[in-house]
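Same chain as my last thread, 101 residues:
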Amino acid sequence: METEDRSQATAEPQPAASDPPAAGEGVTEEKLEAFRKFIHEIFSTGHNIEQVPLDKILEEVNQAGSRPDPFDEDEVMECINKMMEDNQVYLDIGTRALFLI
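reply #2:
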């Protein structure tokens, strides 16, 4: 009877496995543009900066200005993914470094 109980438990809907991630729902176009501006500013502040550690971006994105709606980590990653789709940046997962293209 244990197998029957297990099959019933797995028959319940599992939205995390069947639904795609909600990319694009959390970041408005205005917020994406603010993030793009921040990324371009962070790369232009130093001389010959080729990469910026992701941790630095996560740390400084909300310090750049007094935003009434600060970025959370998921929104930062969503913005980076959108910028990667537009060939504006590249994120090296191994080194956790962001490159401006």
